[in-house]
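A reminder from the course coordinator: this example appears on the midterm review sheet, so study it carefully.

Given structure:
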């Protein structure tokens, strides 16, 4: 039996132009080692400003071009945890999807992400732990082929037998 392929659907676009991944519900029993999912997102200035407003991290390297120009990066960069949050988007919507609960996440920040960069997120199931309904996933974010962030997530995945009823996929 070959590895299931799950092509990435075209993201839905909200009225404000932001892309949203369609929900896909996978239970622990649906997962196999080697399954992967990806997502790409262009980092906009409004994303970075919104993340700063949401978190309170108003470091001027993210928000003020005149400040950022004097740093080694020479321009504004996205918050590292904003980039990491794109991993969360994949885990919570596609692999494994709704009902998944983060247990832990390691993050290695390798390079900056600038405004206008397209971040390509890839997550891959690298281990399944059946007795605890856990999945370990390798997580990588790239910009123009360069790894900007990598790490590993440990996720509790609902079992088909014990899953609560989920909301409609359009939610």
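Designed residues:
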């Amino acid at each position: 039996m070959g590895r299931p392929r799950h092509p990435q659907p075209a993201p839905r676009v909200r009225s404000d132009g932001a892309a949203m991944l369609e929900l896909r519900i996978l239970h622990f029993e649906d997962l196999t080692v080697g399954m992967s999912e990806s997502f790409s997102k262009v980092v906009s200035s409004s994303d970075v400003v919104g993340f700063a407003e949401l978190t309170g991290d108003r470091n001027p390297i993210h928000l003020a071009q005149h400040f950022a120009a004097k740093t080694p990066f020479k321009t504004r960069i996205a918050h590292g945890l904003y980039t990491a949050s794109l991993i969360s988007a994949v885990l919570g919507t596609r692999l494994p999807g709704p009902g998944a609960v983060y247990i832990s996440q390691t993050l290695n920040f390798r390079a900056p992400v600038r405004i206008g960069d397209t971040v390509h997120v890839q997550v891959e199931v690298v281990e399944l732990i059946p007795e605890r309904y856990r999945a370990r996933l390798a997580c990588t974010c790239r910009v123009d082929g360069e790894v900007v962030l990598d790490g590993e997530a440990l996720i509790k995945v609902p079992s088909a037998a014990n899953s609560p009823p989920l909301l409609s996929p359009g939610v």
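DSSP finds four helices and seven strands in the chain. The first helix runs from residue 45 to 55.
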